[in-house]
Structure formats: structure tokens, C-alpha cells
Amino acid sequence: MGALERQKKEKEILTAAIQLFAIKGYYSTKMDEVAKRAKMSKGLIYFYYKNKEDLYMAVTKKAFEELKELFREVQKSKGKTGVDMVTLLIQNFISFTEENKMYHESILSFMGLMDQYNNEEKRKLMDPLILESPNFKQLLEIHHDPAKLGIQIISHGVRDGSMRPDLQPEITFYTIWSMMIGYERLRGPIEYENKEVKISQENWQTGFIKLIHDMLKGTVQSQRPKAIQGSLF
Amino acid sequence: MGALERQKKEKEILTAAIQLFAIKGYYSTKMDEVAKRAKMSKGLIYFYYKNKEDLYMAVTKKAFEELKELFREVQKSKGKTGVDMVTLLIQNFISFTEENKMYHESILSFMGLMDQYNNEEKRKLMDPLILESPNFKQLLEIHHDPAKLGIQIISHGVRDGSMRPDLQPEITFYTIWSMMIGYERLRGPIEYENKEVKISQENWQTGFIKLIHDMLKGTVQSQRPKAIQGSLF
DNA sequence: ATCATTTTTAAATAAAGTTCAATAAATTTA
DNA sequence: TAAATTTATTGAACTTTATTTAAAAATGAT
């Protein structure tokens, strides 16, 4: 009955759930399917997780943990200026969400939940199954961790002179964080039905990162002639 | 049997649905409740809307229509430079989502759907109820309308010299659009449980807009001494 | 080995979206 | 105007699926 045994079982369920959520999404994934994939009876899942929402929150928790790890690695990268760390952070975040679409989805939805949770009246209307979820409660404690690291990175950039000196680290970080989140929601090549306008994913990503870079520097890096305008930095 | 009569009935249902979705969210709102609020039997809703998803897509469609109207009004505002139009656009968008949290939610979730829809393999795994929804099909045709107007606004700003000449309108608009979407997802005062860091909503919004402004101008507007750093522009 | 506790299962329950058959109302046709 | 047909409406039946539960199996302690 050891705690290790329990952890192992929980992980088996979680792994099955993540795979299914990633393929079919939360609502299309049935508890029957999770049980089948985890090779156990449906009832047992309820022994390890309070309900389906709790299972999803466990996924979300894992997402935030990996996100924190991603931030930490960028922060630890030696010999980089602050502004270059931000560029690296964005690139890594884009890779992260590309490989773990599911995680990004869960992070997004958790942010929506936080918006409700932080408002007294709205909190009362929240799904009780979520509020009761043990994993949700744990998320309340850790979900700011990545942001804390991000703010440190901006501070570092202001101090080392690679960013505008008037930047306020908190606001600047959350602005960039907004961009990253929004970018991921829109990601993919932009195509209109009639192909009126089309932006390749590469061009958009490059342009996106360049704009953030310029914003942090406070000056446009180079005003090149039209001909080679497309190149980066 | 006039089409007008039908429109009226559809509107009654839609109004009830929007109110409930706004209060309780999509999944917590039951078709029974919608029927009750719209003062009709549950079955009748299925006469006017194909299914619950279709009803939600009708809400989303309304959201995009109002969003387009918001963009258009900004574009029509006379005597404004491009960069000021963008500032106004962001301010209006923030008001819009504040008043219509529900609409913003539906816009966000639609963007998530588009990400799936634009990928052949993922499209096959989408909920058939969504793919069959007539309102979803209509959304496919109109959802780019606001963005088209936004791109025009950026072009205008580059032409009138109020923005950096090297900006690519499409990429720049979608970057700002990302920011707006992400900002709304994070919106509200940022508080850590232990109050370690706290940003008031006002400060964040002001700082957020200023950063975009600087990004578009290409130069920092003013490097004021620390003391009055908080003020805008 | 027996008892208590934990783990596991399979079936029962219940909530909610969807369908359907029957009825009422409205419109068209004769 | 009366009959026929189409449209609108209802309430109950159907179906799917998350959740609960009672019982059985496994595990561990005395």
C-alpha cells in the first residue's frame, strides 16, 4: 500500500488520460476509454482521482510543472543577456506548446478558471467538482511559479542594459506572457478561405519574435531597405 | 411561417442562452434551463438549433459580428493617426470583453477550434456535432472579418508615418491581436497568494498599452526619471 | 490463520443531451 | 369555407456517460 505504489498507479492513469485528451480533447474523452487504456476498471479511476475534472487538473498541474522547468532552464543559460533570454524563452515556449498542444490547452483553460476564481461572485458559480478537486487546490499554490521566474529574467535584462531601463519587470513580463499565450491560440499559418492574405508560420514566428525584441530594446534594430526586410534582426 | 417569425424565436432562445452561458458557462448550462428561461419546451430548441453546440456557435457568431463592428468604428474614427487608432482599438476591445466576458470566451474557444479545423488530421477527430453545426459553417466565412479591418488600420498607420515604416501590416496586426487575446485571458489584477507581487489592473492596462505604442512607434517615447515613470506616454 | 484495511471490480444510479411520436396551429389548396 | 398539408410545439422516451455503491479480492498486521 506504499505511497510509491499509489504514485505509480496514478501515473498510469494520468498517462492514459493525457494521451486521450491530446487526441480527442477533454469532453470527447470518456472515462471508459481512460480506464480501458490504463487497463483497469472505470471505478478504480475514482479511487485515485476524485472526478474527471480532478484528472484534468492533474494534467494541468503537470503542464505547469514542465512550464516552470522550461523557464528555469532559460534562466540558468549562462552568458546570455536578458533580452536574449527572452528570445530563447519564447522560442522554447513555442516548441513546448507545439509538442504538447494538450498542455497548452490546459494552461489556457486554467487561466480562465483563475479569472472566475479571483472574483468572489463568480467563484460561487464555479463547478463544485472543480473547487473540490485536490489537484486544483495544489494548482492554486504553484501556478504563479513560472511567472516569478519570468519577472526575474526581465529584471536581469534591465540590469544588464540589454533592455530599456524604464521597463517595469512585472508589467513587462505579463505583457510578453500575454503575447505568448495569444500567439499560441492563433498559431499556425493564417489563411483566408479565398487566400486573400496568407502568412506562413515561419514568417509570423520570426516577425513576432522580432517585434518583442524591438519592444524590449526600445529602438528599432535596423531599418534595412525593403529588399531584405524580411530577414531577422 | 414567415422568416421573420423564425428569426424572432431564434433570438428569444439565443438571448436566454447568452444570459445563462455568461452566468454559468457553457457546460454548466443545461438545455432544460435554456428552455425554461426562453419559456418553451426543451424539444423546441432543437427545432431551431441543431444541437447545443450549434446554439453556442450562434453566440460565437454574434460575438464576431459585434467584434467586427467594434473594429469598423475604430477604423472610421476621423482625424486619428494609425497608432492612435490602435490604442483606441485596444481600449475598446478591453471594454468590450469586460462587458461581454461571454463573447470573449466564445471567441477564444472558436480560435481553438480553428486550430484543429485547419489541420487535416485533427479535423477528423473533431466533435461531429460541431462540424455539422450550421452556425459553425457560417463562422468559417466571417471569422476573419475583424482581422481584415485590423490589418487595414496598421497599413494606414505605416502610410501616415505614425508607425515604423518597416512594419509588415499582417504580421504586426496578428501580433497585436495575440497580445489582446492573451491579455484578456490573464486580465484582472495579478495577485500572488502571499502578495509577493501585485499589479493593479489599472497599472497593467496602462503599461500594456504603452508597450504596444512604443513597439509600433519604434522608439521609446520618453525616458522619464523614476519618480513619474508610472504615467502614460 | 484470522481480522482489518486497502484495492479492485461490476453493476446500479442519475443527470443531461437528443430523438420521436403525437398534437396543435397555421397555411395552402380545392 | 372545408379539407389537406405543412409547420410549430410538446412531453415522454431514449441514450450516453459521469458518478456512486455494494460486494469481492488482495494485502498486511496480530
From TrEMBL, chains A, B:
InterPro entries: Homeodomain-like_sf, HTH-type_TetR-like_transc_reg, HTH_TetR, Tet_transcr_reg_TetR-rel_C_sf. Keywords: DNA-binding. GO terms for molecular function: DNA binding. The keyword DNA-binding applies. The keyword DNA-binding applies. Residues 30-49 bind DNA. Pfam families: TetR_N (PF00440). Residues 7-67 form the HTH tetR-type domain. This is HTH tetR-type domain-containing protein. The lineage of its organism: Bacteria, Pseudomonadati, Bacteroidota, Cytophagia, Cytophagales.
